[in-house]
Specification:
201 residues; Rossmann fold; 2 domains; four-stranded parallel sheet; 10 helices; 8% strand; globular
Length: 201
Amino acid sequence: MVRQGFRRILEAAGDIEIVAEVGDGRSALEAAARLSPDVAILDITLPELNGIEVTRQLAKNLPSTRVLILSIHADDAYIRHALHAGARGYLLKDADDQDLLRAVAAVATGGTYFSPTVGKTVLESYLAATEEQRDELDLLSDREREILQLIAEGKSNKEAARVLDIAVSTIESHRKHLMDKLDLHNTAELVRFALRKGIIE
């Protein structure tokens, strides 16, 4: 229902074509790879692969698709993670119709757009961040971050292997590496870490 509402706003503009609409992060990556849209509008809390991880993978593998995050989350950590992943805009869901249209236009033409409440200060502090201030998530590879989310969502090694289409032994190896890097010792600690970092809710 939320997506339909946003769709109506965008279609009413007359100069925007909606090429796909999906309900989870993996489907978003697949649709983007297939259709190469100019802009991907993503929520942060998507199932299977969160919006920040989708943003990171799009920035890496499909840089011509620019990401606009549309979220209820206004706290610093979410915004910093989204920007670090490569988002070009961050709009809060209480924005009005014109804000959404301006954000899409800005991001589509290579610019950036942020809700006023996101604020200039957050952007400046993000851009000024030093290497020493980088987040623990930056220690993990793309695959390790994917596996972290799947584990935190309650999937077994076997289920995660099926989702990612890789061997169970590979999942086990990545799981061990990410736990070593984060100094975590069991699944409960992984889940708490994922919750703290906003990877899952």
